[in-house]
Amino acid sequence: MYDEIDQQRILYKIAKSYYEDGLTQKQIGKRLGLSRIKVSRMLKQAREQKIVQISLSAPEDGRSDLEHAIEKKYGIDEVITTTPPSYNREGVIRALGPLAAEALVRSIKGDEVIGLTWGSSLLSVVDSLPAEHWPAIRVVQMLGGMSQPDAEINGVDLTRRMAQAFEARPIILSAPGVVNSPEVRNALINAPAVSKALSMAAAAQIAVVGLGVFSPDSAVLQNEIFTPQEVDRLVAKGAIGDICLQYFNQNGERIEDPIHNRIIGLELHQVKRISRVIGVAGGEEKWIAIRAALRAKLINVLVTDDRTAEMLLRN
């Protein structure tokens, strides 16, 4: 049996070998005649006895502590923030794209199904993707196509471009995102190709989504995807944002409205079941919608700007 001094000496030796010399637990065990499990237990003991005291040096920009505080407040996996060169809409979107692209790429093992929605924020992400060789990956559209918006922010084009960047297989949702009636929607979602794409999107392991709001420069309003009367009705019911044109209230709960019976895409409960949902959104006009999505755990990774992050922490 070790006396107390000998015990501390061996704990120190193991800790130094592991933390300073970079040896593995298996290598340490071989040197000292201990099992790997015994080494692991003794490392834990060294930490408990303050033989090992770990200190962290945060980057000087201070964003790491802000990100950690939001992660704790909302109970989500990761928050990534940036200070954009300009806080106007275009400046924020351009700044978020590369960060979201990096968050996506480091999440990929090489055989996943990746879902994505549509919009300017997603365009910035796709523009920032590196070229990779992941032929086993499938990139699937989570919301049907939009005829009105510019093609470059349409889910069809974004899906194809992401698949091209990864040398992966695109799965296109061959249906409009919004149709004229529930009957048309029901007919389309039961068509084999559409049903297969929706099923694959629902089974995705990773999703990259934008968060929409009813701001004057939003694609929904600018391209008259819905009538003014429909927008007013949604707002009157408490709609403050959307994912996949599925509108939610300040608590992230889906608004009950006939519009949803005309949307071809994933519903909020399906999005919520995806393991890693990377939400890409920033700007002061979006912070309430972002807060709602965080509250309801509709996303578990947030990429945003630092001003929006401060608002999420304070409110």
TrEMBL record:
Coiled coil: none annotated. The keyword Flavoprotein does not apply. Residues 18-48 form the RNA polymerase sigma-70 region domain. GO terms for biological process: DNA-templated transcription initiation. InterPro entries: NagB/RpiA_transferase-like, RNA_pol_sigma70_r4, SorC_transcr_regulators, Sugar-bd_dom_put. It comes from the Bacteria. It holds the Pfam family Sigma70_r4. Residues 63-314 form the Sugar-binding domain. GO terms for molecular function: carbohydrate binding; DNA binding; DNA-binding transcription factor activity. Transmembrane segments: none annotated. Keywords: DNA-binding, Transcription, Transcription regulation. The keyword Transcription regulation applies. Belongs to the SorC transcriptional regulatory family. This is Sugar-binding domain-containing protein.
